[in-house]
Amino acid sequence: MASSFDSWSFNFFPMALITLAMTIGKFSVAVPLPAVFRSSPWSPAHATFYGDETASETMGGACGYGNLFNNGYGTDTAALSTTLFNDGYACGTCYQIKCDQSPWCYPGVPYTTVTATNICPPNWAQDSNNGGWCNPPRVHFDMSKPAFMKIAQWKAGIVPVMYRRVPCVTPGGIRFYFQGNGYWLLVYVMNVGGGGDIAQMWVKGSKTGWISMSHNWGATYQAFASLGSQSLSFKLTSYTSKETIIAWDVAPANWNVGSTYNTDVNFH
């Protein structure tokens, strides 16, 4: 069983290792292809659910996605045990989960797909095999009830599952939600495709160079800089595939906190 996010083996292709030979006249030019996130092997885990059929208790969460309906995540979500959550770097990652060898499994259901939007914290007051389902080093998914009910009867409470990381298929580009003030910009990164995760992020004002942003919590990054009255661009590196992309002129010079800015750029 995989015991940590970092220990999983992913099949992806770094840009430095993949080239496309293009013939231009008499010359061959090696053109890098973008990194592509590939699904991981199936591994065993367990799954429970939290909340009710409305999934209202899944709103917000440790990733900072706020209203999951308004921000495109819906009810197909899960909270990850700390072994998977990776201090928030696993926010936005996507998983296929299938019920495995339980009388509570729905027959003929191959899997359901969920996005990580929350953390399932440890409960050290309970045994890891009797209520402390999210205690390290357990690999566990606490799913929304609607997502859980796609693979098993809710009366089961907990079921053994098989899971694997899969590419996140997202409509459109990455979205950025701004908070902060004149000297501090906090950015919530949403709708991330490919591996779904972010390792590093930079911001560039129209009057500055690239400024490195630090990981705050969940899927948020911050910069302590005065960036008012400047159009803003962002550079992001995927945690898993290491692909780096740039979203130019995401926000106009009159950008505001409390606003969401859409792009047409995303990971593969």
Automatic annotation (TrEMBL):
Its main location: secreted. SMART domains: DPBB_1. GO terms for biological process: anatomical structure morphogenesis; plant-type cell wall organization. Residues 60-173 form the Expansin-like EG45 domain. It is found in: Secreted, Cell wall; Membrane. Pfam families: DPBB_1 (PF03330), Expansin_C (PF01357). The chain crosses the membrane at residues 12-37. Gene3D superfamilies: Expansin, cellulose-binding-like domain, RlpA-like domain. It is a peripheral membrane protein. The keyword Magnesium does not apply. InterPro entries: Expan_Lol_pI, Expansin, Expansin/allergen_DPBB_dom, Expansin_CBD, Expansin_CBD_sf, RlpA-like_DPBB, RlpA-like_sf. PROSITE patterns: EXPANSIN_CBD, EXPANSIN_EG45. Causes loosening and extension of plant cell walls by disrupting non-covalent bonding between cellulose microfibrils and matrix glucans. No enzymatic activity has been found. Belongs to the expansin family. Expansin A subfamily. This is Expansin. It comes from Hibiscus trionum (Flower of an hour).
